Amino acid sequence: MSKKVAVVTGSNKGIGLSIVKGLCKRFDGVVYLTSRDEARGKAAVADLNKQGLHPEYHQLDVSDRESISKFRDHIQEKCGGIDILINNAGFANANNIDFSYDFEENKEIIDINFKSILTIQELIFPLVRDNGRILNISSDCGHLSNIRNKYWADRLSSKDLTLKDILEFVDWFLEGCKNKTFKKEDIADGGTIAAYRVSKVALSAITILQQKELLKRNISVNSMHPGFVQTDMTKGNGFLSADQASETPLYIVLDAPDSLKGAYIWYDGKAVDWYDCNGEYYFKISTYIEQLVSADKKQNI
């Protein structure tokens, strides 16, 4: 009988690394730490080895189709399949929180945070075994309340949602950036970190479709907001350490009931209504700024 396998993308640091640590301690099988940068990934593995933890390593750049193909071939040959897949790799420009029409930067954010999942779905999902678990790490930026354009909020909340709807939503945003016709009012909180919000809303939406497609194989597919976490992406600010933030992802893939499927889950482990367009779930930039100010005050004391 083949060993069970868990894979975490973008896991050489931050939440991903903490999830790998937790899996190494609790998961009865092989755990793969992956990263875009091979040297950093191997350094992370070496550090875990010193702690008595022994994940496997493989290079994986989720924005590169060839890299994903090579990883797929490796898993197919060495392991035969995957039981747990955590799509954690993501990107945000922490130095630019205001709305930006910068097409190339916005496209890069969407390519890494959303478009990469489509390639992983095509190439890696077929390796996920029946009864497996897939978790897409989203954000509070990924809740539908981040979208204030009524047309798109209604279309994305349709029970007949299709991939075409999600792709056209993303294209609407990018075209608006390219032509400088996009309105900041169409995104919550004055359009701050708009590209990141659009990418994560698209990720949360595609999770719903992925669950419908994989339900017949009893594979659970969920997305989650991990909380405001102290990582490079937040410049070290946040309410949770990476280890604390890893607790809910580990619960979802290891302990959650089999009935938890197609949900959008808050960092406390509770499923919330992703369709609540008028809810207060959207990311508020004031929270981030307050943390920066607090951190500066502490440094100056």
TrEMBL record:
Keywords: NADP, Oxidoreductase
Pfam families: adh_short (PF00106)
Keyword Ligase applies: no
InterPro entries documented for this protein: NAD(P)-bd_dom_sf (IPR036291), SDR_fam (IPR002347)
MF annotations from Gene Ontology: carbonyl reductase (NADPH) activity
SUPFAM superfamilies for the chain: NAD(P)-binding Rossmann-fold domains
PANTHER family, alphabetized: CARBONYL REDUCTASE (NADPH), CARBONYL REDUCTASE 1-RELATED
Family stated for the protein in its record: Belongs to the short-chain dehydrogenases/reductases (SDR) family.
Designated name of the protein: Carbonyl reductase [NADPH] 1
Organism expressing this protein natively: Parnassius mnemosyne
